[in-house]
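Thread: "does anyone have the structure for this chain?"

Original post by V.I.:
We have the sequence but no experimental structure in hand. Need at least a predicted one for the grant figures.
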Amino acid sequence: MTKPSEGEIQLQIEDVHLSFGGLNVLDGVSTEIRKGEIFSIIGPNGAGKTSLLNCINRFYKPSRGRILFEGQDILTFKPHQIAALGIARTFQNVELFKHMTVLDNIKLGHHIHLKSGFLSGGIYYGKTRGEEIKLRQEIEERIVDFLEIEHIRKSVVHTLPFGLQKRVELARALAMKPKILLLDEPAAGMNLEETEDIVRFVLDINEEWGVTIILIEHDMGVVMDISDRVCVLDFGEKIAEGKPEEVRRNEHVIKAYLGQADLALSRLGA
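Reply from O.Q.:
Generated one for you, tokens below.
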């Protein structure tokens, strides 16, 4: 069986530059993500991690460089077109419709794949009704059960604790049927039990569903335990990349995090 580190390149980031008001946020970042791997991006606050994800799903447009998804240059695409290609996203701060139910939020993730027209959608008959029934079954039987949120499926989102809201956001991303899933600090703000749950889901999405994961996470224990490869950014530049055991011993990475080798190695789990 081919290991992800040896497999097909699914996403190529080539010499990407991004700046705001003269401040270089990304400075010539290049990397490749292989199909089926968990690829983590780490670095101190302000390193450019989230900005890189924003370029991948076209919230930002780089001033230079290319991003190729399965051979297509996606920098000419709009965000909704990126989602339709198979790149889904969750956010560091939960981005849900707080006054809608869990199920309705999840269903919104699938709307890019619906084929019924405006007229049938407006009066809810025929093809539209059939699509809606099929969609609800798929969501309830696969995604809701998988993420263990059956008990809250009819709840209004703003009534839920933060950890469950993060799980709902993950469910909505899965409803997009992604090939690549961009996860921006999925464990942020969670307690130990919630973190263990979300890590288990991420591993299962990768292994059982075959979805490539690009992960930003500050919990170095999580990163080192589940990543196939790790990319390290600092002040918008890539300073290291490789397997977790290689990265956590890299002198540039240690300096970027704390500047003291013994403390940094301890923090990075060496």
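V.I.: this helps a lot. The first strand starts at residue 9 and ends at 20.
O.Q.: and Residues 116-123, 260-266 have pLDDT under 50 and may be disordered.
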